[in-house]
Amino acid sequence: MSGEPVTGRVGRGYRAALAGIALLLLAVGASGCGAAAQEGEDNLLMASYSTPREAYDGILASYARTEAGSGVTFDRSFGASGEVSRAVEAGLPADVVGFSLEPDMTRLVEGGAVAEDWNEDEYRGMVTDSVVVIAVREGNPKDVEDWDDLTEPGVDVITPSPSTSGGAKWNFMAAYGAQRARGHSEEAALGYIGDLLENISVQDKSAREAMQTFIIGRGDAMLAYENEVIQAQQLGYDLEYIVPEETILIENPYAVVETSENPREAEDFLEYLLSPEAQRIFGEKGYRPVVPEVRDEFGYREPPGLFTIEDYGGWETVDEEFFGSEGSVTGVVEERGTGG
Fold first, then answer.
1. How many secondary structure helices (H) and strands (E) does the chain include?
2. Distance of alpha carbon 179 from alpha carbon 150, whole angstroms
3. What's phi and psi for 192, nearest 5 deg?
4. How far apart are CA 15 and CA 9, in angstroms?
5. 207-215 and 226-234 helices cross at what angle (nearest 10)?
């Protein structure tokens, strides 16, 4: 589904369907942090993509001990980044939103739910970074070491679907960009995407669901956020991961919703996400902090061929040229489908 305005009878049906998504996310995906708000307390709803759930357990507990966080309670609604964005667009009454990639924020800017200047701070509206990595089973039984190994016969690969998951878009751009960084042509890079699709057996709706599929035993390798694999390791799952020589920098945006009934409290919380305390918690959960002095505390490997989405024109260009209805990756997905 597109975030563009739709008018007339179809538009009303579209909005009704999105409102249903919003209610489903709120009813099923939301989890309260502490008891319901009491008189004199402010309650905020944070709507976010699924992977930072565990990081927020620590961050919200830490925030509650601050002067700004005293008396503030939270409800949390998690889901696939695109679905959460569409739910807020449809009316989910969020105060703070966080997504796995910028286009899901852009949808809300265009709809008036988020201010146009949301990304004009020191960190361009981002609160965490990561990179796309290749997760494998303990001992790496298929000897997967790099991108080329993912297209070998008999290697079962897991990644979420780019139609719903921001994580999947990062994954496919990492795969495409790695081929281009090696000097391959655009045609050859898209050919690699097609070969990769032949080995992909499952495309879940979100990065979190894809990780759940992988840890229960499906697949030999998985394209994933580095932080998601680290969190799985911290939970005791026997996984390893490879940071490819060429991969993409993931940047995760957050913003306050314009219709928030508690804008000052929401702004205070967003500011706290960039504090050394919160950034350190993110780092401990596998995210790469955006604050340099905190990031330097962690030993994350810097791949020599690291590139960014800006190298391909930024998300506005990439979303249209690669993942739009006539996009190059969309065409390959439609042609080659999912293997397995």
1. 13, 12
2. 13
3. -60, -40
4. 10
5. 50
Residue 27: per-residue pLDDT:
39
Helix axes 166-181, 81-90, angle to 10 degrees: 130
Q: Facing residues of 202 across strands?
A: 158
Distances (CA, A) of 99 to 64, 259, 263: 23, 18, 19
Task: Count CB atoms within 10 A of the CB of residue 7.
Answer: 8
DSSP secondary structure, 14-55, as one string = HHHHHHHHHHHIIIIIEEEESSPPPTT-EEEEEEEESTTHHH
Sites in the chain below the pLDDT cut of 50: 1-37, 39, 340
Q: What's the confidence (pLDDT) of residue 208? A: 87
Both structure tokens of 21: 């998504």
Instruction: Enumerate domains of the chain plus CATH numbers.
Output: 8-127+252-295 (3.40.190.10), 129-249+302-336 (3.40.190.10)
Identify the pLDDT of residue 210. Answer: 94
Token couple for 69: 């966080």
Asked if 266 and 245 count as a contact pair (C-beta separation under 8 A), the reply is no
CA distances 10 to 14, 103, 197, Å, are 6, 24, 34
- Give the pLDDT confidence score for residue 145 in this predicted structure: 96
pLDDT computed for residue 25 by the predictor? 45
Find the DSSP H helices in 2-158: 8-24, 53-64, 81-90, 102-110
Q: What residue ranges in the chain does DSSP mark as E strands?
A: 30-33, 42-49, 72-79, 96-98, 126-137, 157-158, 200-202, 221-225, 239-242, 246-256, 288-289, 305-307
**Residue type at 91 in one-letter notation:** G
Q: What's the mean per-residue pLDDT of the chain?
A: 88
